[in-house]
Design goal:
With 212 residues, chain A is mainly alpha-helical. Chain A contains three helices and two strands. In chain A, strands 1-2 form a two-stranded antiparallel ribbon. Chain B has a four-stranded parallel β-sheet with strand order 2-1-3-4, sandwiched between helices. The longest helix of chain B has 13 residues. The chains are: A mainly alpha (212), B alpha/beta (111).
């Protein structure tokens, strides 16, 4: 009741407080709905992240295997040389979409798999192991871009979810109870004044009757 | 809009991504230089995705995590396993879920 001491127990104040309570309640309900929607969206993404991750790990490990074979067959220096020569022009289209007012990235890979002649290194000087490794890495890159999109989205949504949850909890456990306790304090105080007044009137009436 | 892709990794992994056509490939050697490079990538407007291997990210440690917390939406930073397939046991995404939902969540079919 410590907070209630600062306010004047008047009818005006009571009306104002009731309004604030209903506003806070409305806000709380809205935020709660937002949180539910976010949770649904979030778990949709998390589920597909699980699937894509498994695929990524498989593709990456086969890419690394192909690369190791290439290192072994063709020699380390030659492979690094080819990597330096390779044409580097992969780009990714990124736009954003809105989920409950949050920006979530949408990434679209332009076709990254290339023809062996389009890769930029000398086909004559390199072995087929290098082509194999390049192809595997291009495939891996495509899945990795997909994974980056999902994880970026999950991250954005999770941060918003955390914020929303904190707000919901603040309203539910701090602001609403304190407002309600203030309302209770004022209405009890007003009732008490009413009763005082009533007994005062009774007493005055009795005194007036005794005088007559 | 088109964005570039960047990779920060050890020499072998970097070579692989260079073969796939990734434009900005940086080979991690020393922590300070890699951090400077990472800052540059995070600040640049035309980089869309940064791939960084778990091992490098782990080596950068707290500095990396702090940058992840404060970064903008783009570029997205994705951590990938390197050629040894090593991954930390604590999954960051799962950690976020635990913090927000307040419970460990196991999604069917997930890793």
């Amino acid at each position: 009741m410590a907070k209630a001491i600062g306010i004047a127990p008047t009818r005006m104040e009571l009306l104002k407080l009731r309004q604030r309570v209903s506003l806070a309640q409305k806000g709380h309900d809205l935020l709660r709905e937002k949180m539910d929607a976010l949770v649904i969206e979030f778990f949709g993404i998390v589920r597909s992240i699980g699937e894509v991750r498994v695929k990524t790990m498989q593709q990456l490990s086969s890419a690394y295997r192909a690369l190791s074979i290439c290192f072994a067959m063709q020699g380390t220096i030659e492979t690094y040389q080819a990597a330096r020569e390779a044409r580097k022009d992969v780009e990714v289209d990124i736009s954003t979409r809105h989920v409950m007012g949050i920006l979530v990235p949408v990434m679209e890979a332009k076709p990254v798999e290339r023809h062996a002649l389009a890769r930029g290194y000398s086909v004559y000087a390199t072995s087929s192991a290098l082509d194999e490794a390049s192809r595997e890495f291009e495939k891996a890159l495509e899945i990795l871009i997909k994974l980056a999109e999902l994880e970026g989205g999950a991250r954005a949504i999770a941060l918003e979810l955390e914020k929303t949850k904190r707000r919901v909890n603040a309203l539910e456990y701090v602001i609403l109870p304190s407002l309600k306790s203030m309302v209770k304090f004022i209405s009890m105080r007003l009732d008490e004044m009413e009763r005082e007044n009533f007994s005062r009137l009774k007493r005055i009436k009795a005194m007036l009757e005794a005088r007559e | 809009m088109s964005f570039k892709i960047a990779t920060i990794a050890d020499a072998e992994t970097a070579a692989g991504f260079a073969l796939a056509g990734v434009q900005d490939v940086y080979v991690h050697e020393r922590k300070e230089e890699t951090l400077a490079k990472l800052d540059e990538l995070l600040a640049s407007e035309d980089v869309g995705i940064v791939f960084i291997t778990y091992r490098v990210a782990e080596e950068l440690g707290f500095d990396f995590r702090r940058r992840m917390r404060t970064k903008r939406l783009l570029p997205a930073v994705l951590r990938i396993p390197d050629k040894t397939g090593w991954m930390p046991k604590v999954d960051e995404l799962r950690e976020i879920i635990r913090r927000t939902v307040g419970a460990e969540v196991i999604v069917k079919g997930g890793s």
